[in-house]
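User: Could you check the structure of this?
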Amino acid sequence: MNNNAEHQAQESATSANDVALSEILSAWQEVLTVYKLQILKAGDLVGSEIKLSIKAMTLSLIGLLVLVGIGLIMWITVCLTIAYAVFTFGGHWLLIPATVLLINAIVAWISFKLYKQSKSAIGLPYAKSLLVNSESEE
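Assistant: Sure, the predicted structure tokens are below.
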């Protein structure tokens, strides 16, 4: 009988410690609400990061175009100055465009030569071979 009384006492104690189902459901609803808010905040963060990245890329492109434009203006000024110098020294009219074309060809040749020499330092062939080898292994 003592065993039976202890068993009933344990059952009444555990039933007093039990939580109602409505409390569990409300706790889970709070958890889901918190996760929904975190997902919404993460989505807002991703959206703002994308907008910021687009703005940064746009400003970088504008800056690059401005620098290219300034460089072209300077180069055209140099070519016009050389053409005017040839004209001032009494050069033939055919000598003026020939001189400008020759200077442009020399600068293009030097630029191409510098590019070929520096291409190995960039490491693009190595990266390309890594990409090709990794695709062939799969």
